[in-house]
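User: Structure tokens for this complex, please. No commentary.
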Amino acid sequence: MDALFLWISSYFDESTYLNGLRAGGMLCAAADIAATALFVRVTEVIGDRPPSRKTYAVLLLFALLTPLQLVPRSTTRFFMVMFLVFLPPYMILILTAVREAHNFVSFVKSKVGADFPDE
Amino acid sequence: MAVFLIERFLCLFWLAVQQVCFACIKYAYGDIVGSGVTMRAEITRNAALFSLIAALSFMRDLFPGTSCAFLAASGTDYYPWGVRIFLCAAMVLFDSLLVLYFWRIVRVYKRGVAAVRRTWPADALLAALIFSAAAVYLYGSIGAAERLGLSSGEYVRIGRFFVQACNFSYIALESIGALLIASFLLGVKKRRGV
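Assistant:
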């Protein structure tokens, strides 16, 4: 264990950390925005609604803004930019989850009940 | 100190987002399998847990002197890294739980309620594993830093390494989550003939 911590304390410097955060931030944004868009689509399909262009436009806009995470030169500024880039997609995710939870439950229950009537 | 304050607020914001989503998904799963859980109860439970986590992360500010255990004989103060590691572990836990519960819903959707099992043992095991790993890393690294005589600057690198490892865990978990949602969406479209 000591050898591992000694190695980390010697080689894991500020620039390695910041580059890792930048790469992680880009990948994380891609995964989060994709998950949010897919979840919004699930609720639309369940509710028999057409795709909400405004929601997808906001998600696309913030997906295009993710390279801003490559700009900051300090970790604190990086986290601030990350917060600004992630805030709208997260708000969409929360609003969709809270608003659609009941519809989602009813849909899954109806399908589970229809396919497994004895249970 | 301002950096530590900003980082804690950002971590708590992300944790709040995860916990709201977790309350919704746990309510959804509970209602689907008929456990009688309500959304209000889940939100209240998660709000209480969030308040506890927030209080623990501001322990020194709220109760000065209670975090002396993190002040080593060498003079290095490990408290900020203790808090960061704790918050990162909490975020990994809630990300894991979100993926786990969504996977359970997909499983019930595909196989029916016969696939339902008790959830708390797996949830508790997951929490124990994640927090044990964080505790082993924190106390192992503090011990190593004291034995090796590392400076506080060198310990910062050790703390950041943990944050980085958590970052890559979120990416893996969120990618799995996106794939699960995509598979669920395909299943729903197939049944509906969309």
